[in-house]
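4.2 Preliminary Data

To establish feasibility before requesting continued support, the project team ran the inverse folding procedure on a target of 311 residues. The structure was first converted into the token representation described in Section 3, and no sequence information of any kind was made available to the design step. The complete token record follows.
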């Protein structure tokens, strides 16, 4: 596989035969170095099994101080396609060894100038005032130092006598006792708060239990409503059936079907019934009047007396 590498600068001491590596593993060599359109063109010959991705980038690096440079190609993205033969790979500029050494030389020169600036006079100018201050402090010759020490002595005496806020804090135990009382109060308040938290947790638990029971009751109510709804549906169906039956009976009555229908529609049965009732009334009247055998049996007791005498 052949790849072209175009760089906007020089070949950075690259030679024909220098190694081409991918992630530190040799995969080929530099085959040719030349110019093309004002740029250095490096042609590389890579191994057949080398897979260079389309987004891979090449950099010229050095392997040592003797100028053993080589071309380094990164792995690229595994999911992108491989570069075809005779393709151009992207390059990344990297500072060469000469530029790095030049910067190090400038840094060394700056350090040297800084070291030269610390001559004997300069050090004396820096440390002299500090030395004089320490000397005056030791011999107690400076008026300012004397005043400072006097003020410190006065303050320490007042503190030792219990004067001032700091002195009272150190010598008077009233503040200490007050602080203890405050701490005790805070502890009691914290205990009360803990009790309130416990009570609140218990109340929350009871509310949760009540809500659970309420949910159960709602479930029972829903079941009862379902049963009532089904009962109403059944009653409605029964009423519809009864209504249909009554409608059929009414139709039969109006059509004169059955005994009741005939009673309502057929006058013959009515007339026969009326005649029968008339005959029965006449028979009862005759019986009451003692007419006929049955009437005599009912109204004349002589027949009963004769029967007793016969017996």
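Position-by-position output of the design step:
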């Amino acid at each position: 596989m052949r790849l072209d590498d175009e760089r906007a600068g020089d070949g950075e001491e690259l030679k024909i035969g220098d190694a081409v590596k991918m992630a530190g593993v040799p995969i080929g060599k530099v085959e040719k170095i030349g110019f093309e359109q004002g740029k250095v063109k490096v042609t590389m010959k890579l191994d057949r099994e080398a897979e260079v991705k389309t987004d891979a980038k090449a950099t010229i690096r050095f392997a040592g101080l003797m100028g053993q440079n080589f071309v380094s190609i990164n792995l690229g993205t595994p999911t992108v396609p491989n570069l075809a033969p005779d393709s151009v790979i992207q390059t990344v500029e990297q500072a060469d060894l000469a530029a790095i050494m030049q910067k190090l030389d400038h840094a060394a020169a700056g350090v040297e100038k800084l070291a030269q600036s610390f001559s004997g006079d300069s050090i004396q100018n820096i440390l002299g005032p500090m030395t004089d201050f320490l000397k005056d402090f030791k011999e107690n010759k400076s008026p300012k130092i004397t005043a400072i020490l006097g003020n410190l002595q006065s303050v320490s005496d007042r503190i030792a006598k219990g004067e001032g806020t700091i002195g009272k804090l150190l010598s008077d135990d009233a503040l200490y006792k007050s602080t203890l009382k405050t701490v005790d109060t805070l502890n009691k308040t914290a205990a009360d708060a803990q009790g309130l938290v416990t009570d609140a947790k218990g109340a929350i638990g009871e509310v949760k239990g009540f809500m659970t029971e309420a949910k159960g009751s709602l479930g029972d109510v829903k079941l009862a409503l379902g049963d009532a709804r089904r009962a109403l549906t059944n009653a409605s169906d029964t009423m519809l059936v009864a209504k249909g039956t009554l409608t059929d009976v009414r139709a039969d009555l109006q059509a004169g079907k059955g005994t009741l229908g005939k009673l309502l529609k057929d006058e013959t049965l009515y007339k026969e019934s009326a005649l029968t009732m008339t005959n029965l009334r006449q028979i009862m009247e005759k019986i009451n009047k003692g007419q006929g055998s049955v009437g005599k049996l009912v109204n004349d007791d002589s027949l009963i007396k004769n029967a007793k005498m016969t017996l």
